[in-house]
Amino acid sequence: MDKIVDHLFVFRGNAVIEDFPGNYSDFRVYEDSTPKEETPKKEKIEKVAKEKTTKVKLSYNEKREFDNLEKDIATLEEKKKEIEVLFANGEVEDVQKTSMELQEIMNSIEEKEERWFEISSKLEGE
Description:
Helix content: 55-70%
Number of strands: 2
Oligomer: single chain
């Protein structure tokens, strides 16, 4: 193979391919001369695997909160739409007060959605 090959494609894994200029013997010498990385110990790998498979269960309060969050978000979205319709139709008497109320609703929706995502990510881990 050394007489035929003048460069190699080295497949490293994880979609990494290197083009090595030289024949197979040169490649072996190069690989043997590079310092090798320490491979993780088997114990560390098993520990990480156990941590990933540990199931997280929701507490009673988190389950209740999760159920209520969907309802609260829907209610706030409805209020937001009502205020937006008032603005679109020009029926707002106190623009500053109404716009502040709209901003508070939008902030509340954002907070509740973030919490909903936190709890739902725990549910996916179960």
